[in-house]
Design brief:
It contains 12 helices and 39 strands. The chain has 741 residues and is α+β, with helices and mostly antiparallel strands. Strands 7, 8, 9, 10, 12, 13, 15, 16, 20 and 21 form a 10-stranded antiparallel sheet that branches. The structure holds alpha-D-galactopyranose. Alpha-D-galactopyranose binds next to loops.
Length: 741
């Protein structure tokens, strides 16, 4: 085929850019092309090509996902994979984009439905496509019945990240039951040395990076807890065996969903690797009446040829420019003070004012009252649900405190946990039916609380009313929105038994709507997603919350490991970290104030220490470090992050470098965790600088080794590196490099 003919039969589909249902950042989108002769679709953006085709049977099959192909490259038409024996059938081996359970499918289905007559066979075939300008929508339909599926593909031009989602619509004239539904299935090129990476954890130990070889069989990552969960985060990365921090291919994806989710990574009988992500089929069932539809969450998937560092930098950029509130220009995180670890439930006006005055004196910009300000909340045993100010603790309401905080030049913020209720509360006494429950069965409590059923309209209306009233009657510019327990007995008795499992979707949809409506009514409001620490960090909630609470573990060393894991998936732009007291309340470790500050300065800086116990020298140190942080926070929060030395696997040292987009400023943090390695310390070679620019070196804290030059080229700092003078356990230093020519 001559090149000219080749070009002629390709149709330019326009520009793609934003994902369905996402806060849109605008800007130009990726290129989408379809070759009408071969029925091959191709998306190109950010150095990535993604292609799929329609095979002769009408099924949509993956063709390529990886580094950008040449514009002139043509991909051959899709052909099902042939089985080599009668023990396998083509559907169990073919890399479908979105397989219905049916035919000979033996791998994970993307969609499984049952019909009223007992049929559970679904054969999804291409039925057309539309160019929506910012996305490509592919229509599929079952071969026999009017079950329609719309697949959305939105590729971001800057990063090549593809946002995939699906909507199933019932046009059969009768009900259908959706038993399983994914956002997408992603198929990898054939290779026999893949490694899977994921993030696991628990309370006070979130975001631990795990890895294992991908071998025949399936590996399931999931949450069954009703919420995103600490245990496993909905993010995966797949590398080749030789991939390193800064080189080699990495495919990655994160599901934007804050309820039960599942990512199934499997290797089929012929070695094909598939990752299917979506609603967790565990206890899942969603009945669709004639004309109804169900939308999946969005699976955001990307590729980098520059190792794990390249993958996370591109994903951070995508989150800043496409996902976070105010994208493409998310706001800088203000320096925050939170009184939780200082006072726990023992809050009152005088005590909070005293802390606020001290916080303001070190440069804090936002003062937050945590748990304990409302209802009969003297411990975690009572009061949740009663979002009215406790007049014993605040006899004049919150007004005078807020006025004082504002007068000190700080914003005021408040902790809430709206989705929960203590049985010992006025709300529960009035509405015991408002919680998730099965009639006549136990209501299992955790932290003495039950989960309100946000799937119910009246519950959502009530929460909107009380939170709106709170925000309307006070100058509250920030909410820390908590969720402190996993679900149990997930019943919704007010609806028909066949509809009760809609709870899993309806709850989360309503939570998102509630957050969006509060934001709409209170445009100044910023929100933090917290769930006993990092139990609800995902790209679904991050569309609606400026920041996330990474962990309740504020020990500065543990936190470095947690932050390192977090940074593989999520952006420093949203990551909060606090300087708290020493010994730390979680593990009793004693560390210096500098070390605590430098650990917490790697994201949005917060202070959570009891300032009443600080000495003059602590205030002076804190004032200086807060001021230094403000000078470099744009680079730390919005720049490119290089994990120079990871603290994982008991590494005795660690270092990160954040580089601004114009490469004019870079911030280096270096930590020594065990002085056993003192004499073996090597120079730290920097990355991401402009090799030909000259950078001056300035210490924020600590010092470089004797003889370190004050100025040198980017090439020098990256090639020769910088040796930091660190001499004892849990010591840290931080430096700024500024381009001077
Ligand atoms: C959770 C949060 C903490 C704190 C407490 C208050 O544990 O993670 O930061 O807000 O609730 O009860």
């Amino acid at each position: 085929m001559a090149a000219t003919n080749e070009t002629r039969r390709k149709v330019f589909l326009g520009l793609l850019g934003s994902a369905a249902g996402m806060a849109l950042g605008g800007g130009a989108g990726a290129r989408a092309m379809v070759d009408q002769a071969t029925r091959v679709f191709r998306l190109d953006g950010g150095g990535v090509t993604y292609a799929f085709g329609i095979n002769a049977g009408g099924q949509v099959q993956s063709l390529y996902w990886g580094a950008a192909l040449a514009a002139s490259d043509s991909l051959p038409a899709a052909v099902p994979v042939e089985a080599n024996s009668s023990n396998e059938m083509a559907p169990g081996l073919t890399p479908y984009e979105f397989a219905g359970f049916g035919g000979g499918l033996t791998t994970e289905p993307a969609l499984k439905v049952r019909f009223p007559d007992g049929v559970r066979d679904l054969d999804l075939r291409y039925a057309g496509h539309q160019d929506k300008g910012d996305s490509l929508v592919l229509q599929l339909q079952d071969a026999k019945r009017a079950v329609r599926v719309a697949l959305t593909y939105a590729m971001d031009e800057a990063t090549g990240i593809l946002a995939r989602s699906a909507v199933v619509e019932n046009r059969t004239g009768n009900w259908i039951q959706v038993d399983q539904m994914a956002a997408a299935c992603l198929n990898l090129p054939y290779s026999d040395d893949y490694r899977l990476y994921f993030l696991s954890g628990r309370w006070a130990g979130e975001f631990m990076l795990q890895t294992r070889a991908i071998t025949p069989g399936a590996f399931v990552l999931e949450s069954r807890k009703g919420v995103t969960s600490h245990q496993i985060n909905p993010w995966i990365a797949v590398s080749r065996a030789a991939t390193g921090e800064e080189s080699g291919p990495v495919w990655f994806g994160a599901l934007g969903w804050s309820g039960n989710w599942r990512i199934n990574v499997e290797m089929d009988a012929m070695g094909g690797v598939h990752a299917t992500a979506g609603y967790n089929p565990f206890d899942f069932s969603y009945r669709l009446k004639q004309g109804e539809s169900l939308a999946s969450p969005v699976f955001h998937a990307g590729f980098s040829n520059e190792g794990f560092g390249g993958a996370s930098r591109v994903f951070h950029r995508y989150q800043r420019e496409k996902v976070l509130p105010h994208a493409p220009r998310p706001r800088l995180r203000p320096v925050l003070y939170n009184s939780w670890e200082a006072t726990f439930f023992d809050v009152n006006e005088a005590g909070q004012v005293a802390l606020a005055e001290k916080a303001a004196s070190i440069g804090v910009e936002r003062f937050v009252v945590d748990d304990g300000w409302f209802g009969a909340r003297d411990s975690d045993k009572a009061g949740l649900g009663d979002w009215v100010v406790n007049l014993k603790k605040f006899p004049n309401g919150l007004g005078p405190l807020i006025k004082r905080v504002n007068g000190l030049g700080m914003q005021f913020g408040l902790w809430v946990e709206p989705e929960m209720v203590n049985p010992d509360s006025d709300l529960y006494r009035a509405h015991p039916d408002w919680v998730i429950n099965f009639p006549g069965r136990q209501r299992s409590e955790a932290r003495n609380q039950l989960v309100l059923n946000l799937a119910r309209k009246d519950v959502c209306e009530h929460l909107l009313k009380v939170l709106d009233a709170l925000l309307s009657s006070h100058n509250i510019e920030y909410l820390k929105w908590d969720h402190n327990r996993a679900w149990s007995e997930p019943g919704w008795p007010e609806v028909a038994p066949d509809d009760q499992q809609r709870l899993y979707v309806a709850y989360v949809d309503n939570l998102y709507k509630l957050l969006a409506e509060l934001r709409r009514r209170h445009p100044k409001l910023e929100i933090e997603s917290c769930a006993s620490g990092g139990g609800r960090v995902d790209l679904g909630i991050m569309r609606l919350t400026e920041q996330v609470w990474t962990s309740d573990n504020t020990d500065p060393y543990d936190r470095l490991v947690i932050q390192d894991g977090y940074s593989h998936a999520y952006a420093p732009a949203a990551m909060m970290a606090w300087v708290t007291d020493s010994p730390n309340f979680v593990n009793k470790r004693v560390t210096s104030l500098e070390y605590r500050f430098l650990s917490a300065m790697q994201g949005g800086l917060g202070i959570g220490a009891n300032l009443n116990h600080w000495q003059d020298e602590d205030f002076a140190k804190a004032r200086r470090l807060v001021e230094a942080y403000k000078q470099v926070r744009a680079t730390i929060q919005l720049g490119n992050l290089y994990r120079l030395v990871s603290p994982g696997n008991g590494s005795p040292r660690s270092a990160t470098l954040s580089v601004s987009h114009d490469r004019k400023q870079a911030v280096l943090f270096a930590f020594l965790h065990s002085s056993m390695m003192r004499s073996a310390q090597k120079s730290i070679q920097l990355r991401g600088l402009d090799a030909s620019a000259v950078y001056s070196l300035r210490a924020i804290s600590g010092s470089a080794a004797a003889g370190t030059v004050a100025k040198a080229s980017g090439a020098y700092w990256m090639g020769h590196g910088l040796k930091v003078a660190l001499e004892g356990d849990f010591q840290a230093a931080a430096f700024v490099l500024e381009a001077v020519s």
